[in-house]
Amino acid sequence: MFSNHRMVPASLLLAFGLLIGGCGSGAPAETATGTNAGNSVASTQSAAQETNASTQEASKSEQPTTRVVSTAMGDVEVPAKPERVVTDYYLGHLLALGIKPVGTYGLFMQSPYLKGQIEGITDVSDNVEAILALNPDLIITGDAKKYDTFSKIAPTVLVAAKSNVREEVKTIGHMVNKEAEADEWLTTFNKKIDPAKERISRILGEGDTVTVFAGGIMKLVTLYGNAYTGRTIYGELGMPMQEKVKRDIDPKVGWIDVSSEVITQYAGEHIFMAVDLKAESFDYKNDPIWGTLDAVKENRLYEIDGFQYYFSDPISIMGQVQDLADMMEERTIANKSR
Questions:
Q1: Are 227 and 252 in contact, with CB atoms under 8 Å apart?
Q2: I want to staple 156 with a disulfide (CB 3.0 to 4.6 A). Which of 44, 139, 268, 304 is the partner?
Q3: Per the confidence metrics, is the pTM higher than 0.70?
Q4: Which of 143, 176, 149 is nearest to 161 (CA)?
Q5: Which of 225, 264, 272 is nearest to 246 (CA)?
Q6: Residue pLDDT, tens place only, 6-32
Q7: Where is 305: in which H helix or E strand?
């Protein structure tokens, strides 16, 4: 180590002598040498950049462009990063994951909770030619009967409807390679759902049950379980269902039609009645049947818009939850001031 240090000054003197000699002769050797050195450095940098670019391109080319997912119809090879997705029922689920599909069924674009998020999406409404024209690279369907037709157009995954929207989001997140986005959305969802559930729990008395009807004062009304209009109320907010409703509604169907003459057997302490709010409102207190219910007598029957609460995608449910909690709180305050 020490001998190397002693040798450095001698080498420096030798180099300095050569430099002086070059200057004394007036030869352009230094300039030429400097230019060559600069060119050499530039050439080395360029080569390094080209090598780096080639490495990045190779890395990109090595990344798989497809992946295999397990579905109810077996394993399906799908794009690793789908860019032109078509769906029938799962518009809101895809939007929640940050994917705007190129096509979907027009009905699901009518949810008021999706306003401002659907521009540019084509209404394919069960039209195979319209789906073909969009040249999709992935189709996500909830209809097993359409699976074979859709799978002839593009890779297709069948996602069966679940009773819990969280499971649907996680399943679809896996299908489109957006697991992280699904987890992030579920965290946000729970942060909004949990406070609403707490607000509602303070309104419901001990042992209170909730019933969901549709139709208003009619001879035949629809009674909902944990599906359609009842999904947010029972499935997400966890409001207690009346026992006879549990017994009589097949969970695979989610609803039944009942005569108004037997509604007293199904009515809970709180009732949600789905109607066309733009055109309908009923006088329940003066009806000979509805007027006998405690929910009506105590002003705990809430008319809700049936179309607005039809939608059960995650974004719509999140909005419905807030609306329901607000509605029940406002009614409770109004009842106390009577």
A1: no
A2: 139
A3: yes
A4: 143
A5: 225
A6: 334 333 333 334 333 444 444 444 444
A7: strand 301-305
